[in-house]
Amino acid sequence: MAMDLRQLRQFVTIAELGSYRRAAEVLHIAQPALSVSIQKLEHGVGVQLLERGAKGVSLTPAGAALMADARRALFHAEQARQSARRVALGELGRLRLGFVGSATYMLLPRCLPEFRRCYPDVELALREDSTLRLAEMLRANEIDAGLVRGPLSEDFSLSAWVVERDSLILAVPAEHPLAHGPVHLQAVQSEPFVMYAPDHVPGLYGITHELCRKAGFSPRISQEAIQVQTLVSLVASGLGVALVPGVTRAYSHPHVAFVDLLDAEAHDVLALSLVAHRDTSCAPVLMLRDTMLSVRK
User: Fold this and answer.
1) Residue 141 in 3-state DSSP?
2) Contact 127, 98 (CB under 8 A)
3) CATH architecture of 95-159+278-296
């Protein structure tokens, strides 16, 4: 049995309007061509589906049996077309997004509600990890995009968009003499520092060490950690002071004070970037990028 969606649409239109002439007008097709198309459909099915009478065109019993299935086939075909279109436009599908922990302080709470409002049918699969691991996962196609602390090593297969800029601030124990700041970084040069592990967080490690160098000293490291939250907890435990992103203030700690730095080099030195494959075919990535850049303004 040979039939196609065009023939089914013509068949349903004729049956609903009860007229070849009116159906031809609605379908923008010549009436003789419409008649030939229905004849081919009937030949393919092997039975007569429509019959002409004094009161117009009506369904044969076989035609009535086909009618319900024809309507369902047309409905599902339209649903499939709409789904494919929405996936291509980024309005439907799945977005696997990796992120560093500090993205949860301000960026994600600020941007994800707007993204979900605009694209409620995009499923978000979120995964937290370090910048290095997120870059590895992206290259292995385990995630579609990542929110990372730069800079990444140069990779021409990836595109990056800065979606948040931030300054470095100083985290000190709440009872520290400098807790009420602001201060110059040089004021804590004799203090032990809780620092980022260079093998896991090379970007922040490099930026913080360079800031200390410009302040005239090399930090005396008492402990290393990977996550910003861990650094803050170690400061609260009295293991030293730490340089952390300004957004860390969003999660205040009763035993830690966050102090602004007077050093100009500490201002807007951090960038949180959305990174994806340069030739990504995942439309939700671009929708998320546009949302983040729009909300940032």
Assistant:
1) coil
2) yes
3) 3-Layer(aba) Sandwich (3.40)
